[in-house]
């Protein structure tokens, strides 16, 4: 086992007169390996007594570490056979399960798996003809789908709230007339792509479009009445 010369050991040595350094270092090394203390009363004896306690503490710590390492190693050695037995047993079980699965697969009496096909019904978008008892906003959406040939299934929440508030003020037929009016107005223009629930039922535009359609309808009625004369 070696010996460590700590920084404070060397600092104490450097503080001594040069002729005392070698005997002091030799005394420390000799005590470390033989536990023999220096004889007589050399001038560096008080320093030696203080530092030898550091050497004793280091030896005690090293001995404790050695015993702990031996204890751990002995425990590992004792556990090794048990661990090996457990691994061997697990390996045998895995092999047995694999053989059983192979035999079951090759058994002529084994049941064949049957795939069951589940028929998914075709998607049907909401249409006005099937929504008589549905909420007003959904009936309006069905009217838009039927009139424009679209397949919308829902609309933004703000549009639904808008139509729910207007449920008592307008009928589905009036909404259908508005859709027809905007279709005729925008068809063939860049605005045709705005024929969507987001635009037609928007809180910012819905009532405006309804008034426009109503005004157009009154104007058409006035022309029709004029033609009768």
UniProtKB/TrEMBL annotation:
Region (Disordered): 59-113
Domain of life according to the entry: Bacteria
Compositional bias annotation for Low complexity: 91-108
Domain Phage conserved hypothetical protein C-terminal intervals: 142-210
Annotated protein name in UniProt: Phage conserved hypothetical protein C-terminal domain-containing protein
């Amino acid at each position: 086992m070696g010996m460590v010369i700590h920084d404070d050991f060397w600092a104490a040595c450097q503080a001594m007169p040069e002729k005392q350094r070698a005997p002091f270092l030799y005394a420390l090394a000799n005590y470390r390996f033989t536990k023999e203390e220096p004889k007589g009363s050399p001038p560096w004896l008080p320093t030696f007594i203080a530092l030898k306690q550091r050497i004793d503490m280091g030896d005690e710590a090293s001995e404790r570490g050695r015993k702990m390492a031996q204890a751990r190693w002995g425990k590992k050695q004792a556990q090794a056979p048990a661990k090996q037995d457990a691994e061997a047993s697990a390996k045998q079980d895995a092999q047995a399960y694999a053989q059983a699965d192979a035999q079951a697969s090759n058994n002529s009496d084994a049941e064949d798996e049957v795939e069951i096909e589940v028929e998914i019904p075709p998607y049907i978008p909401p249409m006005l003809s099937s929504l008589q008892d549905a909420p007003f906003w959904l009936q309006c959406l069905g009217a838009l789908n039927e009139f424009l040939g679209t397949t919308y299934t829902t609309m933004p929440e703000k549009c639904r709230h808008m139509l729910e508030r207007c449920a008592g003020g307008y009928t589905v037929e009036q909404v259908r007339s508005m859709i027809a009016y905007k279709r005729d107005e925008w068809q063939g223009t860049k605005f045709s792509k705005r024929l969507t629930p987001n635009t037609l039922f928007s809180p910012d535009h819905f009532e405006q479009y309804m008034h426009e359609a109503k005004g157009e309808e009154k104007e058409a009625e006035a022309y029709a009445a004029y033609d009768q004369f």
